[in-house]
Amino acid sequence: MRHLIIGAGPAGVVAAESLRQLDSGSDITLIGDESEPPYSRMAIPYLLSGRIGEAGTYLRKSTGYFEEQNIEVVQDRVAAISTQNRSVTLASGDSRAYDRLLIATGSSPASPPIDGIGLPGVHPCWTLEDARAIAARAAPGAKVVLMGAGFIGCIILEALAKRDVELTVVELENRMVPRMMNQASGGLIKTWCEGRGVRVLTSTRVEGISGGQQLEVSLSGGETLLADLVISATGVRPNTEFVADSGVEVDHGILVNEHLQTACDGVFAAGDVAQGRDFSTGDYSVQAIQPTAVEHGKTAASNMVDGKEVVHRGCLNMNILDTMGLVSTSFGAWEGVDGGQSAELSDPDRYRYLDLQFDGDVLVGANALGLTQHVGVIRGMIQTQLRLGRWKDRLLENPLQLMEAYVAAAHGVSDGVNTSV
Ligand SMILES: Cc1cc2nc3c(=O)[nH]c(=O)nc-3n(C[C@H](O)[C@H](O)[C@H](O)COP(=O)(O)OP(=O)(O)OC[C@H]3O[C@@H](n4cnc5c(N)ncnc54)[C@H](O)[C@@H]3O)c2cc1C
């Protein structure tokens, strides 16, 4: 059996390892187009903040690891796939045949349509190559403009702040991390950052960038910022160009079924590129986070092996973000569901916030700020779809009773539980 995997990120690497465990005699080839050993983008902020070196970003640290696993790693770019011939064509002109194919090509930064976005000194923060370019300009005291305060933007923000740059964040929406946190908590993150010397401009658009060594960034309000470095973190799009005319169907990402198989026999997709099932909604959407990539990689690998059939029940959309020491989390249906109820607790002076969303007596989503002790319980409650019974009403009165509610509901205990906060 020849297993071919396109993309040597977390989804591809975990799939290759799982295949090796499940199918010791098969040929496994991992094709990646970056000129680095397989690495984790998640580790780039740690590299930028100086906490690790480049080798610390590598997904597998020991030299010769992939050879030992009998996994062939090829550095090339897949230019096209033929699902009829069961082969892929590489940019080098070479071609490779497969019995089972996994597409794990991740996503790329979406470049906003802004004049000057291609100027030297304007970079996304997506690859190790980007990180090197950013590190070269982000010296202490350098003026840095960060476009976008989404999940990735806020992770980079933390790393840049550690480099002692003079940082301005420009966000189009009216709060920080708008696709992860609600108005109240996103607003608190902004105040927190401002209190630590970062200028944050929300409801503001970058209109254009010009200049040479010193860049000029024009904003929608009429102001012009001077910058030594502009970082663009305005969203990503799945890497799907090479599947054109192959029969593999693409919506936002590559469409897969509950086995992570595409519309084509023997072809699977995983990670940022795949439009997989969402645990909370049951709908199929792209979840561009590493835990989803890893779970997809494992599940797809199981289904690539003959005689195996694993149903993917869906990944919980979960984000944990540390913004200059303030930890924010979002889980599942954090914006709530039709007909649902919610409980909110806000202590802005202490930067603590909790918002719970219920569907009937089941917790289905949450936003939390500065309350890290509840992360495991919230996740457990949502993933097990725990019926809370009358504990739901207690949580509506006091959302901080999460642990008591979890213990009582999970063990069928209704009385005798210490309910003090
Ligand atoms: C700065 C940063 C910080 C992040 N922090 C977090 C975090 O804290 N938590 C979290 O959950 N997620 C985080 N993420 C997101 C996370 O890194 C991604 O969700 C994860 O990398 C997805 O894994 P993947 O294997 O699907 O794709 P990728 O890691 O993107 O790997 C895909 C690989 O395929 C290659 N490829 C693409 N096209 C081709 C082709 N045609 N031929 C061959 N190879 C190809 C790509 O170059 C890439 O090397 C972060 C991302 C960034 C950029």
TrEMBL record:
Keyword vocabulary terms for this entry: FAD, Flavoprotein
Cofactors: FAD
Pfam families according to UniProt: Pyr_redox_2
Domain FAD/NAD(P)-binding: 2-277
InterPro entries for the chain: FAD-bd_OxRdtase (IPR050260), FAD/NAD-bd_sf (IPR036188), FAD/NAD-binding_dom (IPR023753)
Protein's UniProt keywords contain Repressor: no
Any GO MF annotation of the entry: oxidoreductase activity
Keyword Flavoprotein among record annotations: yes
Protein name, per record: FAD/NAD(P)-binding domain-containing protein
